[in-house]
Amino acid sequence: MEVTVTINGDSHTHDVEPRTLLVHYIRDVVGLTGTNIGCDTSSCGACTIHVNGESVKSCTMLAVQADGQDLLTIEGLADGDVLHPMQESFRQCHALQCGYCTPGMVMAAVSLLDENPDPTEREVRIGLEGNLCRCTGYHNIVKAVLHCAEASS
Amino acid sequence: MIPAAFDYIRAGSADEALAALAEHGDEAKLLAGGHSLLPLMKLRLATPAVLVDIGRLDDLSYINDAGDHLAIGALTRHRDVETSELVQSQAGLLAEATSHVGDPQVRHRGTIGGSIAHGDPASDLPSVMLAMRATLVARGPGGEREIAVDDFFTGFLETALGDDELLTEIRVPKMPDATWGFQKFNRRAQDWAIVGVSAIVDNGSAGVGLVNMDSTPVRAAGVEAALSGGASAADAAESAAEGTNPPSDLNAGPEYREHLARVLTRRALEAAGR
Fold first, then answer.
1. pTM given for the model
2. Which residue of A55, A112, B169, B267 has the lowest C-beta tally within 10 Å?
3. Strand partners, B171
4. Region A67-93: what's the mean pLDDT?
């Protein structure tokens, strides 16, 4: 089935099998491999992208469901060489260790601040409950999100 | 993990969805947000031959004040339910429980109708439907019919919906002055409830629904009866596991679940001011 999606501002059209998961379409068909596959069971959040501006786990959506939608992946966040404020906060606060969860963590965090620009620490922790860091580096991740919120206010 | 192959039909209207169901019968499954169905399909626990995508039926996404009840379109996303001022003010228990479904990403895609039609005893929202005595509206070839929530959950992952029917609306009585409590016990953030309890008290009458205490979502009828007889929260909660048949899994056996049901029911009732 033919699917047309906008990813990071660019339009893509491909013929896909209906059972193709969105994350496989993004990585294997379009070739944007910044979005990671972690648990593949909608638990870990490594595959988090934005669909129409909201965080979604792309392992639990079919590519055909995304037809006509506006997608944003980690590759589309920075403005050229200028990091997105959330990416910059992650860098400054050392909010990554192995880095595997980071793309999904950043995308979830951006969506979180879109909905709640001035969260408490508890709201950040609850707001990121859909993203797991197996390095258990949550402390600095939460710090980075709070830092970004503060810097943006 | 990739689902088994299926034919994909994107419905442009409820009538188109019903026509597809009529044609393909029990070989077809409806796809809304997909956050219950797709995980099962990836694990090959569900292998529908035909998937009818109703995710674009925007006319089934709404929250309306319908006089004595709220009318909520089946395709309304969890995110829209939890943040709705109307739901927060008229059905606070539903808004609160919805905010505990999955995680933010799940709530951006999952729908209230999909969650209820899935009929999972471990889901949070069916317990709210039982506690608030909601009515489910189904549309089929013969038109619309209303189903009382007590007649809706018929077996494990089975509901009163026919193979040719579509859940279109959830009707929740308005209870602006009700007090309520929602308790969900799990070991990790975002896990399913090991046991959960929805309790609401409105005008002196109580509704209590249980999560994961049987093969279907169940009402704690013994607790409701004890409360209407004037029992305290602590005394009424002793009846929470009566008549249930709790499952056994890696997290807990039946006896522990029965214990949790009593403890969580007491807490939910105390939160509701009983």
1. 0.96
2. B267
3. B71, B135
4. 97
